[in-house]
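Q: I have 325 residues here and want to know how they pack in 3D. Can you give me a structure?
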Amino acid sequence: MNGCFGVDFADTTPAGWSLARRELARTGVTAFLPTAITAPIDDLVAFVAAVIGVRDRSDAQDEARILGEHREGLFLSPLHAGARDPALMISPSDDDVDRLLSLGGAAVAMVTIAPEVPGVERAMRRLRDAGVVVSVGHTDATAEQVRAAADEGASMITHVFNAQRGLHHREPGVPGTAFDDPRFCLGLIADLQHVAGPVVRLVFTAAAGRMVLVSDAVAAMGMPPGTYALSGEPAVVDSPGAPPRRLDGTLAGSALSLDQAVRNVVGLGIPTASALIAATRTPADVVGRPDLGRLEAGAVSDLVWWDDELRVQRTWIGGVPVDTA
């Protein structure tokens, strides 16, 4: 996610981070991956360093944990730029990868790449070997290229169906290949705006047990209609429930909270257990955290109390209750 509760992660203060993390915890989120959209690499490296500084300095037990940054930028296809500036998308060099990895300490938890970008194969191998999750997104990759990315260690699809080559019955593209290849887990923005309800049901059926609910939220999440920032650029929400858009009408992330995503999916007839697993255990497994997202011996005691309408009543982080006031 790029922001929430009026806070744009790309340009905020320690107080802004604390506000965002505390309010996220009240929605049932106990851990997350902040991100910033495509920008010059110097800016992105500075952002990652800032995120890790916040993560490592904070010991507040009522704030959602930062697990590391999701680098959703740079090595992407200008053909599927979404709300990003295509002029800033580049082919990866060893120096670029070095700079991301030099921050250490699992600073970069996930990197979204377009498999067809020249030179990306070596970058994927290096990222994989360093323990970074490689996700396929913002891409015009063919089915063959997507499978080749899995061979190099890619294991995730960034917001399936959005900003990527679509599904065709003679060229499965990104979604069709991900449905068919069990090496991939599929991220899904379930605001019912980015992906229509019938397609959400299709995805949960086709990739049962491999779904990851994501918010892809920007600062507009948890806020009334208005104009908010996405990495410093305006994102407009013109009515309640509407997704944020750039001034040219392009979708610019979402205003979706993860608890609302769970409610949306269950409202489509997906079993509650499947929806909750897609918001807990599966994403934790994707980022290599078997101590999160489950209730079992040896796991961190993160708990969420839901009522019968799937509204969050209380959250515990590491066994400590979060103030609901």
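Q: Anything worth noting?
A: The chain has a mean pLDDT of 93. The two ends are 24 Å apart (CA to CA).
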